[in-house]
Design a protein that fits this description.
The structure is a homodimer of 488-residue chains. Helices cover 47% and strands 15% of the residues of chain A. Chain A is an alpha/beta fold. The radius of gyration of chain A is 26 Å and the shape is elongated.
Chain lengths: 488, 488
């Protein structure tokens, strides 16, 4: 089997064999949330995508330092360095101190990520926690001649930069394209060129989040935090930088420029971007009425939702598509994902109960190779899931006596499911998330009572049990090896 | 009933009527954890103590801004400005970046606080996130003439300070006492006097957590973070500062000195300190083998523990003592607390099922007044709990037909329990924390099956149910209004 991981690099527009800078170590930086609103699908997708990358790299014996930031200042309402700070605006509207907003939505974000079974990153730095590092970087870019100061703000001089380094290499926009796109906004700007971007902004009198700097009171440009924090925790050059595709321009393009302008070093070897999400075929937006936050998915409270969907259904649905494909959320698609997930989860349980035979009628090695090949091919989770469904077919055939595995093959099949389904794809039982040990223990008793009732031909009681459990969403399955239960 | 809250103020050594600086608003700062180890009882006690203060002030219609910090740098191993940074040392031992240590133990701390049902504070600032603010404060103290610079470090000049402000007012130590206590450590010190303390420390070459400053690369003195962050989020003078009694000297004494030296303003109106914890009569310490972390209490895995204790048992045990009394943890005392908590919790459930009569034989108003009086008397939770046990007696007497309440009194009794037991003391059902809706629904079915079995004189089945539930820690209670269940 191929042990080499291939990653599609947005920078080179091709899959490349992954080679880490330091042997057996990976430095990975992923853009985290700007914490001024409820976590939604736009947070779930990169959260889950890079959680699987993190898990697979760890499984591949790398020591991974996974850094994901919290943007708690500096992210303005639009990308052309104009408008209010998103967090400060929310604070003004809710009459709270900005850091109260940050605290509230950071907690919501962490809660949502935990529900989706995303592992916490190794380090979770905050923009406001690294103002000094950002100021130092701005000073160095100024020293290197790639920025200019005007009215207390500092801008990266993109034309000057472009003389030495190719601007736009990540997004494929050249400087003329960029000029074209921004000209309309440019009338009253103090910038030399509309392609220039702020690396430090002067604080207007009404701007409440501000810090002293060599250029007066102000705040860092939004792109600067990721450059400063990735350098601090991963070094001037590191392995993987991830984020949503909407961040390619201007955010990540600016990070490359800042890295080159500060350290004469392209900061990242592999750029990875997850594709976007639509809801019922449309871009998600508050004005369209299709903006559904994660909590609403989990409890089914949004008008557009026919029912609640568990965090694992959302996770499964997202991983059923490759991270570079778009994903469209609809009730129909989610209900299909729910069925698929349940099928896999039930097979996991069946696998725990089936017995070994003397001979194997199925080639477990090939299944394992296929699973690794899928993950090594740019983390192709939909293909991996398809292979696991092959495994499900075999598991159910063994249960029905149509196929068999010997003891060591059965062990290997269990290991494959534990490794890929649980450890790498990060799925956990909905029972586990909504239920617990006590439920399992009490259900054991209920199944025993039902067995006794059937033995003594007390069908009223047996029916009562089945019907009452049915009402609360529990289904009983009778098999060769006894009865079991599962959530419908 | 008295509506005025009295608070014991460590500064004045007496109870004072609480009056907030801004009408209907309270600013409260509580010292949070230095995140370099597993959360333990020393975290649980201030967490729970000030959670109840926060809850009661909110219940009393104050808008409370509750700030609790995370110390992620600057806290050295001993209080005399010597030794390694606690987090950096842990990072060196575990071969991790300090911020990986911070992330790991911050998550553990949050998880433990959530288990104990402590509400998150309004803002949770970090020392490393406020280096600029700390440097500004050091600069101002220098300008004001209360500090001196030596070899790249800045020290608060306590003798100079003492000429204008009384040093030691909080701890009751005068400057001679302080000199006495520290003389032994003083041989190689660069300080002018051994009572002086660092407000900025030069970073030795091996010190990895460092920031540029006007005095060279270094890091803030530990006491400085709380001064800078409380000023930033609560103002130069705010209402309440809380923490463990071990922080009175030198930490809080230093905060008062820093506030005066910087702003000519005593920063805090009411200083509140929770008393210390012992385990089996001894101070908790790793060398004594009685250092039990919270996770070990929750799962019973420590040798000294006879069993696991739920987070609510720990919470109840801590609140059964007044926060200014010492608390000694032992298996015997915890098991008594467990019984007491279960008794209250069961009464809460009974209260939901009892029916109103035409007449009341019990004065519910007096109970309510007593509960408020207890909380208003310096948050006297043990007295409050004693009053709630009076309520339990009445609830059980009503169930047994010996007392009665009319409809409006019954409503009021329910309100008292909801307010004081749930909202203010913050107790939740152990069922709720270890169980869930599905367990409740399945248990309903089990109780129904048992009822049917008894009706049809199938005592084997009825006994089987009782015995099997007993094994998994569920106890069935038969009452006038039907059967119910509870965790033992």
């Amino acid at each position: 089997m191929s042990k080499k991981i291939q990653i599609y690099n947005t920078l080179t527009r091709q899959k490349e064999v992954f080679k880490s800078i330091v042997k057996n170590h990976v430095g990975m930086y992923v853009c985290g949330p700007t914490v001024y609103g409820d976590p939604h699908l736009g947070h779930a997708r990169p959260g889950i995508t890079f959680d699987v990358v993190f898990r697979y790299l760890k499984h591949s014996n790398y020591t991974v330092r996974y850094v994901r930031n919290i943007t708690d200042a500096g992210h303005l309402e639009n990308d052309s360095d104009e408008g209010e700070d998103k967090i400060a605006k929310k604070a003004r509207l809710e009459q709270l101190e900005p850091m109260e907003i940050v605290q509230f939505y950071t907690i919501s974000y962490h809660k949502a990520m935990a529900s989706l079974n995303c592992l916490p990153p190794s380090i979770e730095p905050r923009a406001t926690g690294h103002i000094i590092e950002q100021i130092k970087m701005v000073e160095k870019i100024l020293e290197n001649g790639f920025a200019y100061t005007i009215n207390g703000s500092v801008y990266l001089d993109v034309n000057k930069y472009n003389e030495k380094y190719p601007y736009g290499s990540l997004s494929g926009r050249n400087i003329e394209d960029a000029l074209e796109g921004t000209r309309a906004l440019d009338r009253q700007s103090e910038k030399k060129s509309s392609v220039d971007f702020a690396i430090w902004k002067k604080a207007n009198p009404e701007h409440i989040m501000r810090w002293p700097s060599p250029w007066g009171n102000g705040f860092p440009g939004w792109h600067m935090e990721c450059s400063a924090m990735s350098e601090k925790y991963l070094g001037k050059k590191f392995d993987i930088h991830g984020g949503g595709m909407d961040l390619v321009f201007p955010h990540h393009e600016a990070e490359i420029a800042q890295g080159n302008a500060c350290n004469d070093c392209n900061p990242v070897n592999y750029w990875m971007h997850n594709n976007m999400i639509t809801v019922d075929g449309k871009k998600m937006g508050k004005s369209l009425g299709n903006f559904i936050n994660l909590e609403e998915f989990f409890n089914g409270s949004h008008d557009k939702l026919e029912k609640a969907y568990t965090p694992m259904t959302i996770r499964f649905f997202i991983l059923q598509a490759h991270y570079r494909s778009t994903v469209d959320f609809s009730n129909e698609a989610l209900q299909a994902a729910e069925k698929g997930f349940t099928k896999l989860m039930n097979a996991m349980e069946t696998l725990g109960n089936i017995l070994a035979s003397d001979i194997s009628t199925y080639d477990v090695n090939t299944l394992q190779e296929n699973c690794y090949a899928a993950m090594n091919d740019d983390f192709n989770t939909p293909i991996l899931i398809a292979h696991l469904f092959d495994g499900v077919r075999i598991i159910n055939s063994i249960k029905d006596g149509k196929e068999s595995l010997n003891a060591s093959d059965l062990e290997q099949l269990k290991k494959i499911f534990n490794t890929f389904f649980t450890e790498i794809l990060g799925f956990i039982s909905n029972k586990g998330s909504s239920g617990n040990d006590l439920t399992n223990e009490v259900m054991e008793l209920v199944l025993q009572l039902r067995g006794n009732a059937k033995k003594s031909k007390d069908f009223d009681t047996a029916d009562l049990i089945r019907n009452e459990l049915d009402k609360v969403g529990v289904q009983i399955k009778d098999g060769r090896e006894g009865s079991s239960w599962e959530l419908k």
